[in-house]
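Final report, section 2: Outcomes. Of the targets proposed, PDZ domain containing 3 is the one most frequently requested by collaborating groups, and we therefore present its record in full.
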Amino acid sequence: MEAAAAGLQEAAPLTLKFEFNPKLGIDNPVLSLAEDHGPSDAWLCPERPRFCLLSKEEGGSFGFQLRQEAGGAGPAVCGVEPGAPAQRQGLREGDRILAVNDQAVAHEALEMVARRIRASGPRVLLAVAAAPAHDPALLCAPLGPGVRPRLCHVVRDEGGFGFSVTHEHPGSFWLVLSPGGAAERAGVPPGARLLEVNGLSVEQLTHSQLRRRLRRSGAQVTLLVAAPEVEEQCRRLGVPLAAPLAEGWALPAGPRRLHLQEGPRGFGFLLREEKGVGGRLGQFLWEVDPGLPADQAGMRAGDRLLAVAGESVEGLGHAETVSRIRAQGSRVALTVVDPEADRFFRMVRLSPLLFLEGAETEDPPGEDAALPPAPRGSRQGSRRCSLYPGPGGGYGFRLSYQAGGPRLSIAQVTPGGAAARAGLQPGDEILEVNGRPVDGEQDVDRLHRLAEAEPPLCLRLGARSPRGWSEL
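The predicted structure is given below as C-alpha cells.
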C-alpha cells in the first residue's frame, strides 16, 4: 500500500486532475460564486484547519489536482491553476485534504477523496492544513446533527411565506417568523440568518434587492438559513456556514435508494447515456418493464442514476457505469433521482447525494422467499463490496454469529454509515473477507482485526431469505 502511494507521488502521469472528459462538458475553470474568505485567527493557527468553499459553474472545474503522499499520509493538493476557484479560495500547493463536506478523509486513498469531491457537485467545502503536527483526523471533528445550516423549501399559503426580514446592513438578513406560518412549518428556525435564496447568496444584496428576489420566486422559495446557535457554534469552530453542509428540511424532492434482486428475466431496465437537465450528459434509466425487479423496486422511466452501491457515478462514462452495476452481481443497490428532483438540485447548486441521509428507500416485494437455497459456499449470485471507514473510524455494521445456518452475518447496519452506503443489509451473510472464505467462529475475531487494518475492507456477501440462508 505504501509503495503504491509513493508511486503516485513520483509519477506525474498518475496525478489525478479535476479535469474530466470534455464530452461531459465540465473541463474548463470558471468564476466562483462563493465568498472569498480572508484570513482568520482560526486559519492562522497551525492546529486548526483552513476551510475553502469552492464553487464551479456548469462546464467548469475547481482548478486543482491531487497527489498521493508517501507513507499513507493521504492526498495533497497540487497543480493549483491561477485564477481558478481553488486559488481564489485559498487552496495552496501541498495542502493536505482533511475533510470533504464534513466527511473526514485524512486517511483515505486518493481515488476515494477524488470521488467524494466529484460527488459533491458544483460546490464543495474542503478542510485543509499545510502540515498538521498531530493526527489530521483529530483536527476535523464532524459537525453533529442540528449544528448545520438548513435548506428549507417554503410554499406560500394565504399568509404568504410566513416571515419578514430584518437587516443591519447589505448582506446581513435575519428572519422573523409568523407563528404557524409557512416558513415555520418548513423548518425555518426562529431568528435564523438568511444565507441564500434559491441557491444564490444574499451577501451582496440590499434589502430592496432581496425583496425583489423573493417576489420573483413565485409560490415557493428555497432558503438556506442558520439558527443563531448554529451560527455561533460554527463561528467558534471557524467553520463557514456553507451550503454543502446543510440539512434538508421539507424539500420538494430528493434522491431515492432502490434495491434490486435480479430475477429469471433480469433486472428489467435499460441504462442509456444522454443529455438531461441543463444539457449535462448522464446515465438514465429507461424501458422499465412492468412487474420485473426494477419496476417492483420503484424505478421510474427517466430516472437519472447517481450512485451504485453507495458510490457516485457522476462523471463516469457509460461503459464504466455498466461495469460497476454488473460487478454487484444479482443484487444491486442504486441511487437515483427523477427529473423534478434533478431540476430542484440544479437550481440550488447542490448535489442530490448530499441529501441521502433522509432519502426514500424503496425495496422490492419479498419474493426471495420463493428462491431455493443455494449450496453453501456457492459463488452463484453473490456480490462484492469494498468499504472505507467513516469519520469515527468504523464501518457502520455489527456482526452476528450462529452455529447453525449462516456462520457469520450482518446483524445491524448504521443508517448513513459506510456499510449502508455500500448496500449492506441486516441478514446479509459474509462469505469472504479480503479474499479469504469465512467458515468458523474464529472468523469473528479475524474480521474485527481486519477492520482495524488498512482500508478498504473487501467483503463477498450472500443474503438470507425468509425460508433460510442462501446466496442471491
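Residues 1-46, 358-381, 464-472 have pLDDT under 50 and may be disordered.
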